[in-house]
Design goal:
The protein is an alpha+beta fold and 315 residues long. It folds into two domains: 164 residues, Regulatory protein AraC (Jelly Rolls, Sandwich), CATH 2.60.120.280; 100 residues, Arc Repressor Mutant, subunit A (Orthogonal Bundle), CATH 1.10.10.60. It contains eleven helices and six strands. It has a six-stranded antiparallel sheet with strand order 1-4-2-3-5-6. The two termini are 18 Å apart.
Length: 315
């Protein structure tokens, strides 16, 4: 099974250098390949069972800004080493060998120091899929109401989870078997979870998640702060203030970073510079080249040659 990339939400904008949860070291030595984006795979699953799993391994992982999904995310960490899982309500520290769950529509991020090997299998489940699995998220009991939770796994249950996940990642697996394996995983987690091995985190409710999702869906288009403010019925000043508070970035920085991540993924996949600029919302090729160079420190062509087939900063 080839490793597959995540949707580009892991941004490389400035972050708080005093935040102890994030290492200052930059790491590019990911070992992940590149095929369909996570969003494309989930969209292709519409009408199917909306369950997908894949494995990623890399040194360090930086996600200085928050993002959210319309589906449920389970991150099974197979390696050891410090990981910080966060949502707008706070952070949970783990030493690895755990599973982290992020509920749908919850702003979150995950950070790993640059000297730590981050080996994980990510399981994404759409709401329609879980509604068909014994009551959906109700199968997780009280955990279903949390924004995020982390369960430390012992070697025995981790080995069992790996077997289920290996089957889920098999190319020829049927939708029925995906549902069965996911149901088994949810059942195991519910039964295994205790007050001693589980940490939960409720996020602060914020309308900024709607803004983030809108930008993610419309990044190719012209997006203005007044239009976004009107959409969520707040003043421009309040939107700017709240967006910076919850994402660590201005709206303009966030949009440019998102476009740049899509551009990097396209260039690394072999797409041409002009086509990439158009697909990422840049009307001017010269402006795209200038912005890309300022953002990455190299031209699109140079980046493409260096990163061909290797780029993956996704979570």
């Amino acid at each position: 099974m080839k490793n597959k990339p995540f949707e580009p939400f892991d941004f490389d904008i400035q972050y708080d250098q005093n935040d102890p949860s994030i290492s200052s070291e930059r790491v590019d030595d990911t070992t992940c390949g590149s095929e369909l984006t996570e969003r494309e795979r989930m969209n292709n699953a519409r009408g199917g069972c909306e369950i997908t799993a894949y494995r990623l391994t890399q040194r360090g992982h930086y996600m200085p800004l928050y993002h959210s999904h319309t589906y449920y995310e389970f991150i099974f960490v197979l390696s050891e080493g410090r990981i910080v899982f966060s949502n707008t309500g706070g952070s949970i520290d783990s030493d690895g060998k755990c599973v982290c769950f992020h509920n749908s529509h919850v702003l979150h991020r995950n950070n790993v120091p640059g000297d730590v090997l981050y080996d994980r299998v990510v399981l994404y489940c759409g709401e329609a899929a879980l509604s068909m699995i014994g009551g959906g998220m109700g199968g997780l009991g009280k955990l279903a109401g949390e924004g995020s939770f982390v369960i430390q796994l012992d070697n025995q249950i981790l080995s069992r989870m790996e077997r289920y996940l290996d089957d889920l990642m098999h190319e020829g697996i049927s939708d029925d078997k995906k549902r069965l394996l996911t149901a088994l995983i949810l059942c195991e987690l519910k039964e295994y979870s205790t007050v001693h091995n589980t940490k939960t985190l409720s996020p602060i409710r914020t309308y900024i998640k709607d803004v983030v999702e809108y930008i993610g869906m419309h990044y190719k288009e012209e997006i203005t702060t007044p239009d976004l403010a009107q959409m969520v019925f707040v003043s421009v000043n309040k939107l700017n203030r709240d967006f910076k508070r919850y994402t660590g970035s201005t709206i303009k920085q966030y949009l440019i970073a998102l476009r740049m991540k899509y551009a990097q993924a396209m260039l690394a996949g072999g797409e041409g510079v002009k086509r990439t600029a158009e697909e990422c919302g840049f009307e001017s090729l010269s402006y795209f080249i200038q912005a890309f160079r300022q953002y990455t420190g190299q031209t699109p062509s140079a980046f493409s040659k260096k990163a061909l087939g290797k780029f993956d900063y996704y979570t």
